Amino acid sequence: MARLAGVSRATVSYVLNNTSAVRISEPTRRRVHEAAKELGYVPHAAARSLRAGHSRMVLMPAPRVPVGPLYSRFFDELQWSLSRLDYTVVQYGGVGLHGDEAARAWAELRPVAVIVPDEGLGPKGVAVLKRSGARAVVTMGPEHVEGAHALVMDHQEVGRAAGAHLLDRGRRRLGVVVPEARGLDVFSRPRLAGVRRAVRGTDATVTELPLAYEEEAAARLAARWRSLGLDAVFAYNDEYAMLLMRALQDEGIDVPGETALLGADDLVLGRLLRPRLSTVHLRLPAGRDLAELVDRVVRDPTAVPETHEVLGSRVVHRESS
Amino acid sequence: MARLAGVSRATVSYVLNNTSAVRISEPTRRRVHEAAKELGYVPHAAARSLRAGHSRMVLMPAPRVPVGPLYSRFFDELQWSLSRLDYTVVQYGGVGLHGDEAARAWAELRPVAVIVPDEGLGPKGVAVLKRSGARAVVTMGPEHVEGAHALVMDHQEVGRAAGAHLLDRGRRRLGVVVPEARGLDVFSRPRLAGVRRAVRGTDATVTELPLAYEEEAAARLAARWRSLGLDAVFAYNDEYAMLLMRALQDEGIDVPGETALLGADDLVLGRLLRPRLSTVHLRLPAGRDLAELVDRVVRDPTAVPETHEVLGSRVVHRESS
């Protein structure tokens, strides 16, 4: 390869291993890469990371809950931004692994950075990752974890905004849908707590409504709706709101006359319903900002962990509330 | 660690590197693992794969299109099944990489198996992966790729089933929605071709209807609907069908009286619409079957590549068609 590129073997090695200690001109780099390509050479990421001491891999455990369109868009942008900064994003399948146990598994791949999209990682897990060479550990959970940079996603605030809106609309007996689907309680619990916080100091009440994402379950809930005596419901998100709206309408219950209905996520489908669905619009952090935070910390791993409040909540008032 | 476990250093190394050449009893293995855990030892997957010659990593590039609930369920089951067979699944972020170029990037991680969930990988890419140590390469695309095992996903058949159903219902002027969203044409083109195949030899016509997933775009299409003279439409999937149904109803067009409407995917939301949505139910391969195929090929990489037809299509007739 050195002969084909017209450079020394040491230069080939420096270029292919991306050594930053040695300064090599851009044209030379290009010549080496072209020669490598022509010869069908595939560098070994593992070997390269062993030599360099770290990789360019950003590991991101796959979220443990089914992802919605909001998260997909955020993740696409994050991935794109990291690839422009020359990182490779791998999503680690986390089935059956939890908390610090999961961290040990991630550490085996020797990522240079780890972004954890939900809660569960503790200070021990952060330490394991750092000992294994991760320079940046960023969590996206409800609270800060010792040793890690934190994007704090405050789902209580989603519930608080929902509760405050329904109170504003003159409602006093609020139902809150809590999905029965495995894993969603990391979001639904704080949302419920947020609604409770909103009504504190008022005469309003909050009733928890467990619900499976199935037509029959919604019909059963609608059938006993009038006995619950509710005048409003925060339905967790737009998809559950759609499910419940249909069941209430089939039962002859007027939305919003008899019961106000509020979703969350601001999906297109909410505007297709009649009445049009009111919703809590969520703003996830910009993928580009997060990519830049990761890159900054990789370059200076001694930086003091930062905590950023993200996830803006804003109610979009349409016709259902 | 050897002292803590009460075994020789060689035994520790054999156990931690999972060497199969040496027979070591289960209690001894357990003692070594416990000692490793107590000492906070994290094995280095890279080093381990260098020594062993291959890893337990199954690499799966992330699909290039937003995934729906169907794919999520399939992927969860696949991941679960592979983890039970002691594989680690990593999803590789494929932004900006295409075809054989992508294969080179995947090869850097030295996965023992690669599952490609969409098309784009060619025979060259398969060869690069195999040269880099991948024992199993499985593609899930419209056709077989040389050197790889193939789960053939025939989206033409989805369109053919849709077209045949609408003909059965006495319709003759069929519209087919083709989403404008980036990336979806790998599914929408063959589905359109399938509808065309269904009408071959009849007096029915097929009209292509490009559509963005936006309320305004659907309203524009509905406004010129009567000038198109269609009596049926296959709306690509249930979400586009919902979007179009609302726009047609707002325009005073009766579904199914004036226009029959058919979705695909059989999502819950289809049953929540009025009229209830007819749909093409798709059956993805079982994650467990795919996991077992991967494991079988990893154990015997010389096995002749298999081709399996997957993706069953079956029309569920409700009220909209």
Automatic annotation (TrEMBL), chains A, B:
Q: Which residues form a coiled coil?
A: none
Query: Which UniProt keyword terms apply here?
Result: DNA-binding, Transcription, Transcription regulation
The record's GO molecular-function terms, alphabetically, read:
DNA-binding transcription factor activity; transcription cis-regulatory region binding
Q: Does the keyword Transcription regulation apply?
A: yes
**Chain ranges of the HTH lacI-type domain:** 1-52
CDD domains recorded for this chain?
HTH_LacI (cd01392)
Which SUPFAM superfamilies does the record cross-reference, listed alphabetically? lambda repressor-like DNA-binding domains, Periplasmic binding protein-like I
Query: In terms of domain of life, where is this protein from?
Result: Bacteria
Q: Under what name is this protein listed?
A: LacI family transcriptional regulator
| Species the sequence originates in | Streptomyces ruber
Q: Which taxonomic lineage is given here?
A: Bacteria, Bacillati, Actinomycetota, Actinomycetes, Kitasatosporales
